Structure of HTH lysR-type domain-containing protein:
Amino acid sequence: MLDTKIVSLLTLITCKSYTKAAKQLHLTQPAISHQIKQLEEEFQIKIFHKSRKHLILTPEGEILVKYAHRMMAVYNNTHQALEDAKNNLHRFNIATTPTAGEYYIPQLLAAYCREHSDVHINLITDSINNIYNKLKLYEADFAIIDGRLTSDKYQSILLDTDYLCLIVSPQHALANRSSVNMNELLEESFILRSKEAGTREIFENYLESQRDSIRNYRILIETDSLATIKELVMSNMGVSIMSHNACKEDEQKGRLKTIPITNSTMIREINLVYPKDFQHVDVLLELKKTYSKLQ
């Protein structure tokens, strides 16, 4: 059973108040304080800095909380796995980046579940940095990301390759072009993903490789919502750089035009990323096989 002191610590971190944590756990405030003190004595650390108004973690406290989250995740996963075993069910928590999660990955997972009735999938969409954190804390079993693996703590299986292209409204002056140079876009209004997004990173790296800079272009809006970007581009409010796969359906229905950028090297990988101790690599290989059938 998970140590109740760990539960109290994580609840306190979430509630940011001894009073609120005590109420949520149906304990007294002194009981919560006593459990925190027990943790400090057990590990011989101070968990919080002295402050009357705010709960501010010490460096040692941050380490303890990080591993407390991991213990909680392992406990919950163990409980769920044992329950699933009773029902002959295999459950996977899968994290995915927004571009993958909004378009082609749900179809892949639905197709896989149709072929495997004993599998249940919980899909989590998040930023790439948060996804690596979820893998580290065992909150996700594996991930499907657009981009290359950036950590040697994990392994990956290439699912597909994609490329970034210019997207414009069918009414845009460039809509019928077979390709376009970046210097032709200097006066355009760009609607782009936020700076933390993998798509944005690939685009900026490409510009730098061409001795260019994102600062030379007029950015109208930055957002994490792919739907918002496409809606604004469809309305001819600006142009964007986006995954070609993410625009296929809209292009086929005549809502958007995709235009390759001349001499572009903005190739993007789509990878299955998993911890080295992941026990179901066979599932990932089956997912790759199912994905190939859908193309």
